[in-house]
Design the sequence.
């Protein structure tokens, strides 16, 4: 890739790849079953080796943040998937937390079964593509998207994972997958006459980074803030703009980056990609990004302990028994006894 190419916007690169793949998918539709089989049989093995999947072989990352607005009124009108906001209150779109398995379901869709795409869209949402097949920057109340576009984007996500898995193992990645991303590439990444131009693995990584930038840019993921009344605090969270494509882009990037998922740090209050070697926090449990780390965790635990101690002393002052307080605060009677021993009735 030369400098001029790197300077192209993600949208231009997406558009070029889209045109190239369009003809490829038309070819598939005319009976390239062995090629259809290719993407997934190869996927299972290599995604497991690269540890993109969990111990059950499932793809996807938990996203403890953000929402997607999913239409209820979605149907197939060949060759389109059509959606609108419905006619009654019961048809109104639902605000859903993105599910962990959404990427795993999505990368199977390119094999081109309209019913499977419809089931997926009803469960997770539509891609929200504009009239040209490009992911929209905003949520659209009604519209339609060509089923081929779904196949194209699903196949492309699959190609990203296949290449990422190969690169992890020090390999260039399958030519079929590179062809999906950019049909003008020579997937053997040969040396060129210009010695300063990268070749081999470093060239493959450079092109791959450029592909990831396309996903990041089209995902248009931003940050927003909301009030969490249960915790009586402001919480920053990822803003997907209610769009499923943004969720898919983020899950794909997290998988390639080998993070366990996206969580909100209770220290700095920012969303962070949690390293896999750290244990996954239970819902509602405090957790911290690597930057805030153990120190913030200890400080937090100390604050929590002090607050419970204050509560215990107050209840004791109001005449509650030590056993009663222990039960209420989920502490042992010995701990509560220790907390209140200096307090006189
Ligand atoms: Zn933090």
Sequence:
């Amino acid at each position: 890739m030369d400098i001029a190419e790197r300077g192209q916007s993600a949208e231009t690169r997406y558009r070029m790849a889209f045109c190239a793949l369009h003809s490829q998918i038309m070819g598939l539709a005319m009976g390239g079953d062995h090629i259809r089989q290719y993407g997934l049989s190869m996927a299972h093995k290599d995604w497991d080796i690269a540890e993109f999947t969990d111990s059950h072989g499932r793809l996807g990352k938990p996203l403890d943040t953000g929402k997607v607005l999913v239409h209820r009124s979605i149907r197939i009108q060949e060759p389109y998937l059509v959606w609108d906001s419905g006619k009654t209150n019961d048809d109104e779109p639902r605000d859903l937390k993105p599910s962990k398995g959404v990427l795993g379901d999505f990368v199977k869709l390119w094999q081109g079964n309209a019913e499977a795409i419809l089931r997926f869209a009803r469960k997770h949402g539509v891609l929200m593509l504009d009239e040209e097949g490009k992911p929209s920057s905003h949520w659209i109340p009604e519209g339609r998207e060509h089923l081929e576009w779904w196949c194209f984007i699903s196949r492309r996500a699959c190609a990203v994972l296949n290449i990422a898995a190969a690169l992890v193992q020090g390999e260039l990645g399958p030519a079929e997958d590179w062809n999906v991303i950019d049909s003008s590439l020579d997937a053997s990444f040969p040396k060129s006459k210009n010695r300063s131009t990268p070749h081999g693995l470093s060239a493959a990584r450079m092109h791959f980074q450029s592909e990831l930038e396309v996903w990041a840019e089209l995902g248009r993921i931003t940050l927003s803030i909301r009030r969490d009344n249960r915790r009586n605090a402001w919480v920053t969270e990822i803003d997907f703009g209610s769009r499923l494509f943004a969720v898919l882009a983020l899950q794909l990037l997290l998988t390639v980056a080998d993070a366990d998922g996206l969580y909100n740090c209770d220290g700095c209050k920012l969303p962070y990609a949690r390293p896999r070697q750290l244990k996954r926090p239970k819902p509602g449990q405090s957790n911290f990004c690597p930057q805030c780390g153990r120190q913030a965790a200890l400080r937090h635990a100390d604050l929590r302990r002090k607050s419970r101690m204050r509560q215990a002393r107050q209840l004791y002052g109001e005449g509650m028994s030590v056993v009663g307080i222990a039960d209420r605060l989920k502490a042992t009677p010995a701990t509560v006894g220790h907390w209140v021993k200096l307090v006189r009735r």
Observations:
- The first helix runs from residue 3 to 6.
- The CA atoms of residues 189 and 200 lie 5 Å apart.
- Residues 265, 267-268, 270, 288-289, 291-292 surround zinc ion (CB under 6 Å).
- Strands lie at 68-70, 73-77, 80-84, 94-96, 143-146, 222-228, 233-239, 259-264, 271-275.
